[in-house]
């Protein structure tokens, strides 16, 4: 349909947000996409160079913790829908600075909900879509059990606790005020434009520069990995067709033990750099496990498949190959985003 929409995408300069903004801008020229981002260390407009001149795209630098600014943005741009991704997203940082996670993830979400509630009139067509994580469900033992939409929340890290709290607020606004909402909880994402503090880009970068690969504990923790563009496609689908008030799990049915994933990365980088395959395994360095490290996450996305017909499009090996090539070909982007704040953080975490 050609219905005009004014969509506020928060956190659009971040990793997943930039893929969502790109998809929406390119696919729906009749929508106005307002990207609102504070540009923290994790937000980089360099992630959006290819679309920044599009006539249906607009960038606004604001902090979601500023309620007045949020109200102003809703009014100025006649915002009728929100896709909310802005968050502090790195578990390790949440362990050293839990306050900023509560502020941004909980209070920031509440500010957006309240701005929506005060601006939107009943009977109009609206949607508040909150992007969340599978980490709210806690940890699974090894085996076949998966997180479903009915799994009880059981967060363990300050990051997952803050995301769980924000999910609860979003549902409370639906149940209390009738705000039209939808939530999706996704597994670990990987792909281009991910800030190189997260496992996959960090390790690609370190392998390339022959730096140690810090592996938590014995590397036995299991994560389910999804290519970021597949997540963006799921978000597009849920935004347009998801049942209001519902939750959808998004995952790749693609579980990997950390250490096995790291070996795949090493083989791929070595091969693409013309080194002997597996040569860089010597860089693996086991470090003290992360406090409260969840053993296993695995998500059941059957509902999304059955109701909306979504499936991951890429095999993992294909996705990893694409991703490694992208980071090797985009050293300039890496240099740009890793200058400044990240250097300070990296030294604090891993020494030098
Ligand atoms: P990211 O850290 O790469 O990006 C976050 C963005 O939010 C950045 O651009 C940052 O500048 C912006 N931001 C932070 N605080 C802000 C504030 N106070 N005001 C305005 N903007 C602010 O994160 P990501 O990995 O792209 O994750 C995006 C969302 O998806 C998050 O809500 C996260 O919880 C969720 N999620 C991530 C994953 C994953 O694997 N990365 C998986 C599931 C869900």
Automatic annotation (TrEMBL):
It comes from the Bacteria. Keywords: Lyase, NAD. Its EC number is 4.2.1.46. The keyword Ion transport does not apply. CDD domains: dTDP_GD_SDR_e. Residues 8-323 form the NAD(P)-binding domain. It is an enzyme of class 4 (lyase). GO terms for biological process: nucleotide-sugar metabolic process. Its cofactor is NAD(+). GO terms for molecular function: dTDP-glucose 4,6-dehydratase activity. It catalyses: dTDP-alpha-D-glucose = dTDP-4-dehydro-6-deoxy-alpha-D-glucose + H2O. PANTHER family: DTDP-D-GLUCOSE 4,6-DEHYDRATASE-RELATED (PTHR43000). Belongs to the NAD(P)-dependent epimerase/dehydratase family. dTDP-glucose dehydratase subfamily. This is dTDP-glucose 4,6-dehydratase. It comes from Petrimonas mucosa.
